[in-house]
Design brief:
Length: 338
């Protein structure tokens, strides 16, 4: 738009020109948000439903995104926590609302497989839900108690090979349990996996020596490592974490070929209009690719890893196959009878 043309030499159509200029001002002021609302979305308050308790990585990332989208769109975006049954309770709640994109499931890997662990599945993840965007990725940090007779994964592998016995490792949640089981299979270490309902309690018990080791989110374990209360064994991902680059991967530390990553992603009910999905994805892309989000992610022990609706559906299907295979191998998903 050439502003100078709206002056003394402009064509003599003052009313139509003024109306056009006034109509353009909101779009210039609101940017991407105005474009989203022009497509009819959002038309009302948006809820990011997190099927886990407050304080989890998914909750923290969702709250950051919600605050920024509220500013971007000029419409309230709020976070609602509805925990229970490893995410099933909150996920079912999303199916009870209209498929218009104003209620978004913001979740992690258990969403893709936890119904396979139930006798009667209340939904089929990638049939009843449409992937919108992956926003961030995270790793588990494995750490040993200061009271344990090993300080590194290689020491643990060698000690277990020479002396036998088992090693108690605390975990919270089915995903951490599955990853610990995968490490057991990869290294041959006889882990006795101890499930906890509270991640913080699992970390506290490892620091106190009630268990030999713990596997939990980086944000929870790293402060204990830095305080000298736990010894880091390694991070679960295929590459080192930007949050703790000084800590090796488990593959580097002795578990050759090992690599598992968690993530936080948005899904909506199937049948949601494509315009709403596109607006949600565009907003989340804008937020998660910002320098402010990168700094926030580092502090939270997660990493930006945006993937939009062009690629995330296929990646989500691949993730579902991978996690389901891992859980079957670990014995958490039983073969269906009949």
């Amino acid at each position: 738009m050439k502003i100078e043309s709206i002056g003394r030499n402009a064509p003599a159509r003052p009313n139509s020109t003024r109306r056009a200029l006034l109509a353009a001002i909101p779009a210039l002021m609101l940017g991407g948000g105005a474009l989203a609302q022009k497509a009819g979305f959002p038309a009302q308050r948006v809820t990011l439903l997190v099927p886990y308790t407050a304080g989890t990585a998914a909750d923290a990332v969702a709250r950051f995104i919600a605050a920024k989208l509220t500013g971007l769109w000029g419409i309230t975006v709020m976070v609602e926590n509805k925990a229970g049954a490893d995410g099933v309770v909150g996920t079912r709640a999303v199916l009870q609302v209209a498929a218009d994109g104003h209620t978004v499931l913001f979740t992690g890997p258990p969403f893709l497989y936890n119904t396979e662990m139930l006798d009667s599945a209340p939904y089929v993840p990638l049939r009843d839900f449409q992937p919108v965007a992956r926003c961030s990725s995270a790793m588990w940090l494995f750490a040993a108690s200061k009271h344990a007779p090993f300080t590194s994964l290689r020491e643990l592998i060698e000690l277990n090979r020479r002396q036998g016995g088992s090693v108690d490792i605390a975990v919270s949640g089915s995903a951490a349990m599955a990853v610990a089981t995968a490490l057991k299979s990869t290294t041959g270490v006889r882990f006795n996996i101890v499930p906890y309902t509270s991640t913080s309690q699992a970390i506290t018990d490892a620091a106190a020596g009630h268990v030999d080791a713990v596997a939990a989110a980086i944000a929870g374990v790293a402060p204990m490592v830095r305080a000298g209360k736990l010894n880091a064994l390694g991070v679960s991902g295929p590459t080192r974490s930007l949050a703790v680059p000084e800590i090796p991967t488990l593959a580097e530390a002795g578990a050759t070929g090992f690599g598992f990553v968690s993530w936080n992603a948005a899904f909506v009910r199937s049948g949601t209009p494509q315009a709403a999905i596109a607006a949600l994805a565009d907003g989340m892309r804008s937020v998660t690719m910002s320098a402010e989000f990168r700094e926030f992610a580092r502090e939270q022990g997660v990493e930006p890893s945006f993937m939009g609706p062009d690629a995330w559906p296929a990646e989500a299907a691949a993730e579902q196959a991978r996690w389901s295979a891992l859980l079957r191998q670990a014995g958490f998903i039983k073969p269906k009878q009949g």
